[in-house]
Amino acid sequence: MIKLNWSDERKPCDECRYNHVKLETNIFGNIYIEWKGWKDYPSYDCMIFNQDSETILICHEYSLDDAKRSVKAGILDLITEFNDDTTTNS
Question: How far is the C-alpha of 59 from the C-alpha of 78, rounded, in Å?
């Protein structure tokens, strides 16, 4: 079981223009789930990019907990895909 240590909820700042939580990773760098805190029913959005600034994961959910689960599932899929590619190409 992988546990992701998200930050507490944060207000907009220089680092991120929207309300957000942050996850620091060694593989993907900083990952943010962002939402527009002034909306009654915001969507919780996340995009992860590779080193070439190409989007490799996008999630849009309607609760922060669902967004965290979606990001976790996406990260596990990316790692599994990478492992499968390296095993096949060995």
Answer: 14
